[in-house]
Task: structure prediction
Amino acid sequence: HLLEDVELARKETEEQRFNLDIVLKNLADGAILLNSQNKVDYMNPCVEKIFPKLKVADDFFVFLGNQPAFFKGSVELTALRKKLDSGTALDGELILNPGEEESNYQIVFAPLRPHRVVVSLHDVTELRQMDKLKTDFVATVSHELRTPLTVISEALNLIRTEVVGTINQEQK
Result:
């Protein structure tokens, strides 16, 4: 019975691993597993699209440091590993190719035991572009409204202060 139980457990483990592999391969977000030396142990196909030159066994932080990228977060990339070793999940925004055709990713570093880290990358480029369009639109509209309103306001001020002549009560 012991052999049957072991075989059943092995088959269940294989099926779970197969299902997990299918999920990770079809995930719309990037998923990376780092070992204790910051080397990539696993990455899904989405990561291969984001970082075509990243390979399994590469040091992820060294690789990122050599990319045209900017990391915005509560901790700098160089201090990130020490924070992760304390067991705290960290997140930030990774901007690839800043100033050019930039791509924005919400990046989350989630520590696992023992000294492993899961890195997830969620594409927020479209969201950032929409936010910039909204900001630009509001700035343009406020500028376009401010110019004629200033002229009208100054003209009314001239009339109110009677610089252009006296006005009667009904005109006031």
About this structure: The mean pLDDT is 88. Residues 3 and 47 are 40 Å apart (CA to CA). The beta strands are 30-34, 40-43, 69-73, 90-96, 103-112, 116-123.
